[in-house]
UniProtKB/TrEMBL annotation:
Cleaved signal peptide residues: none
Name of the protein: AraC-like DNA-binding protein
Record keyword Nuclease present: no
Record bears the keyword Transcription: yes
Span of domain HTH araC/xylS-type: 151-249
Amino acid sequence: MRTTATGLLGSLSTKGSLVVDARLVEQIADFMHDTAFFIKDASGRYLVVNQSLVERHGLEHKSQMLGRRPCDVCPGEYGRIPTEQDAHVLRTGRPITERLELFWRRPNVPVWGLTTKLPIRDGRGRVTGLIGISKDLTALVSPEEVPRAVAQALRHLESTFDQPVSPSTLAKRAGMSAGRFARIIKRIHGVSPMQLITKTRITAGSRLLLETDSSIAEVALACGFADHSAFTRSFRAVTGMSPSEHRRVAGTAWKPGRGHEDFDLLQKRHRLLS
């Protein structure tokens, strides 16, 4: 018998008399245009997806994803990484929370997101599936709302990310405690200060890989990494591929003057934080 979302989750009950059918979760998720939402069974196959996730994969209908795993939807590295993430959650029962990840959209713009995957358990505590979201990271407040001291610290990061920098040094530059600085950064950008540093460096590295012929080692040093290996580890952690793989795949897809065919092919292969 094929597992269904309703069978996996049942009904969502409150302490009162309200009972919400699991299908309503899918309906409300379709209104989350900046968030990919999904429910998967014990084998990592999609049971529920929202329309945003479907469109991120370059598809038109949810039926094109249901019953399939990420590696079935996106061949290669783009599908392998989320499939391995799912297997880890399903095998260990340990959640993945707010993992910083990067993907690309037309026209050659990096888009960052935070991915969370939580195990679903039955009455006996056994893992029977997972539920997750990947939310796009966008500025949560306008530039005018950012405290001046924090804005100065962020400008410092943007101009010196090739040098040693840490959350504590940024907090000190802003003239506040590390805890207060972290809370403000989370409110502004939706990430921790360390995630913001990584995001800044990887974004710069991604562009250098596509826009210059610099070696991987040169890009690594230009973006504040100790060496080629450190850059590769960080880059793979948030993109699912090595810098050289990214340069080859993304660079080919977005060459100026090329048609949309290469991009569309890449989109269909892309994991897009799922």
